[in-house]
Amino acid sequence: MTPASIRTALDSLAARDDDIAEAIALVGYPEPRNREPGFAALLNIIIGQQVSAIAAAAIRARLAEAVEPLTPEKFLAAGEETLRGVGLSGRKVEYGCGLAEAMLSGVLETDRLAKLPDDEVVRSLTGIRGLGRWSAEIYLLFALRRGDIWPAEDLAIQEALRRLKNLEERPARKISEAIVEPWRPFRGIAALFLWHYYKGAP
Questions:
Q1: Where does 3-33+149-200 sit in CATH, by number?
Q2: Cα 11–12–16 angle (5° rounding)?
Q3: Homologous superfamily of 39-142
Q4: What is the pLDDT of residues 74-125, one digit of tens each?
Q5: 180-196 confidence digits (pLDDT tens)
Q6: Where in the chain is the domain with CATH 1.10.1670.40?
Q7: Which residues contact 49 (CB under 8 A, 6 or more apart)?
Q8: How much is the pLDDT for 202?
Q9: Torsional sign, CA 39, 136, 134, 132
Q10: What is the helix (H) or strand (E) element at residue 118, kind and residue range?
Q11: Rounded to an integer, what distance in angstroms lies between the CA atom of residue 40 and that of residue 43?
Q12: Is the pLDDT of residue 3 over 80?
């Protein structure tokens, strides 16, 4: 995703959806959030699970200083004491080590993921302990840059969609998927915008 491709996609959506048009006028366009595919991107998704964005960023910064470069080999070699010291919980250390081992053993080949359809990427990633559907969808969106991914379980996305569409409550997957169906093939770019809207709208 580039700033130009994001703007083009959102302008297309705004022409079909007055709520998006009004929201863009209010908060502007989001910046890309591209990540390099591979171990570091997946580990950073694990770090971001069930913690605030600020806490996750702090842990990632400390981890980058302690383990450089952030590869499966270096992560495993760092040891639990070092990994816990940067702020990773015991469970996330376990998940990270499992991910590293899966990649080193060839159980998970991230180069191969880039060639697979979306549903097969989700199936491959959710086979790794610690990676659920949300994690797989975030990887598809930001590392593999699949522009039509809809991360329906993301709480910020749910809340932003609730505000955008003036809903009484945060929509579950089935409801949100019906709402955003007309946004194909740009649902992922719409999700990127909704994160931006969530942070910036009054």
A1: 1.10.1670.40
A2: 110
A3: Hypothetical protein; domain 2 (1.10.340.30)
A4: 999 999 999 999 999 999 999 999 999 999 999 999 889 999 999 999 999 9
A5: 999 999 999 999 999 99
A6: 3-33+149-200
A7: 92, 130, 134, 135
A8: 64
A9: negative
A10: helix 118-126
A11: 5
A12: yes
Gyration radius of the chain's alpha carbons? 18
* Cα separation, 158 vs 139, whole angstroms: 18
Q: Residue 126 corresponds to which tokens in the numbers above?
A: 């959710």
User: Can you tell me the distance from the alpha carbon of 132 to that of 70, in angstroms, rounded to the nearest whole number?
Assistant: 22
- Nearest in space to 198 (alpha carbons), one of 152, 147, 170, 164: 164
Distance CA 62, CA 187 (A): 33
Q: Which two tokens stand for residue 20?
A: 């998006």
pLDDT in tens, 136-146: 999 999 999 99
